What does this fold into?
Amino acid sequence: MGLAALLWGTIGPAAAFVTEHTTLSPIQTSLWRLLTAVIPLAAIALVVGRAAAKPSRALVLGGLAVGAVTGLSQLAYFAAVVESGIAIPTLIACGLGPILTAVGQTVIFGDRPDVRTLLALAVALSGLALLMLDSPHTVTALGILLSVLSAITYAAYALSVGPVSRGMSTLNLTAIATAGGTLAILPFTLADGGPGVPGTAAGWAGVLHLGIIVSCVAYALYYRSARTLPSTHITILILLEPLVAALLAVVFFDEHLTVGTIVGGVLMLTAVAGLRGDDETANPGE
It folds into this structure.
């Protein structure tokens, strides 16, 4: 699980790397990430899943919808990284997403929030305020808005994936959801001038990393760990993701963090770690 979180922590830096070494827009990068993931996933699902029961049409449509929401969340995150760097968008998306999921469980499913959930929400909102008020000058209002949108769409994914995941295998769901994300991004890509081509060896390396390593390998590790680890442990391990992204941003992309953004990030991650332990859905993003 820790390795999956470390790999997810490279999403933002890898997206920034692709932007530096190609002419791809965030929309095009999102599409290429999904395309390089969906092909091997679909092939594996077809081979491995021959003996398994086929999911119903309703479940397939549900999986496609889950993937579409996930794809839009990733698109918003990539655009936020291009607009405002790596560190702040990652902290906002990873910190706010699980909190909004907890709120959604209360509003949609009628789960009464306990004191710990309410306290976590207050701490997370305080951290978000610090991130916005004391962000580096490179962070824009649009970048923050896109980061919040990524967190909102992540929460929508987390709240909808449960019923679908209980009706089909993890492999089938991952393949179908990835296909759904690809279909959701495709119209935006066509409106953006087409898929484009990475064009350089460095660009292809970044795209393949996003598709194969981050999507296929990391999600396989995540689902495997989720079968044995308590959700509390998973949530804490997931906190490695924004920390790794922030560290890579400072070391390799010359980003600077103010005291306010560090404190705000710590508050948001603390809120996630303190979130209720029995029914959380781990991860951003992904």
About this structure: The chain has a mean pLDDT of 80. The chain has one domain: 2-273. The chain has twelve helices and no strands.
